[in-house]
Amino acid sequence: MQTMYKHILEAKKGNQKLLAVLIDPDKIDIDHIPEFFKKVHTSIITHVFVGGSTDAEKKMGIVVKTIKQNTHLPVLIFPGSHEQITEAADGILFLSLLSGRNPKYLIEQQVQSVEKLINTSLEIIPTGYILIDGGVETAVQRISETKPITQDSIETIMHTALAGQFSGKRLIYLEAGSGAKKAVNTNIIKEVSSKLKIPLIVGGGIRSKTQLNAAFNAGADLVVIGTAFEENEAFLLELKNLEC
Ligand code: 1GP
């Protein structure tokens, strides 16, 4: 049963905005997870994404397990590679890097995931992932050996998102990259969300409530924030509502 996806669709229909905290297993201290989630629970966060371009210390399984022990929020894997897949989560964003032309991230990683996913209870959500230039070279760019689409190529971004929808993706994720200097421009979000029928995720470089509101008002259905919470947990405490 597609429960998490159904909830995202219903939220979109009801214009209820969703916010995910992104946890990078390479960066979080496992002992700090309980305290971190106390703050998460005071905020408007609705989802937990876990993943990163690398999982150098192979901590994904234990990080997800510990998060699950400390929250009732839905936990989705946002994997940089098939090696990060763990049954401890509730679901997986099954990503294809549609902005790139590297077969490894369009289909090879996906094929390698099947052995783990064939008998899984994880909810699998096909997601078209579109990397957009965030003003710095990001880990996704380095690892995937693909170039992001420039922010002024709005038509290319919109066509890429719609090609994803036409191919059967259930979500489109516009990604400026973790720690981006420039978040995805609101003109891009407006253009893509006005044409797209499926829910739109936006992430990368969002560090303030003003930017968060701007992304939502432009048409993002779900926003992802990682770095801003890693660097300043007090930001979580500011997010008790969406008023600026
Ligand atoms: C990265 O979109 C996410 O994959 C979040 O980016 O870390 O810049 O918030 P930040």
Known CATH architecture:
Alpha-Beta Barrel
Poorly predicted tracts of residues: none
Structure class: alpha/beta
* Ligands bound, unique: SN-glycerol-1-phosphate
Helix percentage range: 25-40%
Rounded to the nearest angstrom, the distance between the terminal CA atoms is 37 Å
Tell me the domain tally. Answer: 1
Query: In percent, how much strand structure appears in the residues?
Result: 15-25%
Name of the CATH class: Alpha Beta
Strand arrangement within the widest β-sheet reads 1-2-3-4-5-6-7-8
CATH homologous superfamily (4th level) name: FMN-linked oxidoreductases
Number of helices: 10
Overall 3D form: globular
Tell me the CATH topology. TIM Barrel
Radius of gyration: 16 Å
Mean pLDDT: 96
Question: Care to describe what's here?
Answer:
- By secondary structure, this protein is of the alpha/beta class.
- It has one domain (4-238): Alpha-Beta Barrel (TIM Barrel).
- The protein contains ten helices and eight strands.
- It has helices at residues 3-13, 33-40, 60-70, 103-117, 139-144, 154-166, 186-195, 209-218, 227-231, 234-238; strands at 18-23, 47-50, 75-77, 91-97, 123-131, 171-175, 200-203, 222-225.
- It has an eight-stranded parallel barrel, surrounded by six helices.
- The longest helix is centred in the middle third of the chain and has 15 residues, at 103-117.
- The radius of gyration is 16 Å and the shape is globular.
- It binds SN-glycerol-1-phosphate.
- Residues 22, 175, 178-180, 203-206, 224-228 line the site of SN-glycerol-1-phosphate (1GP).
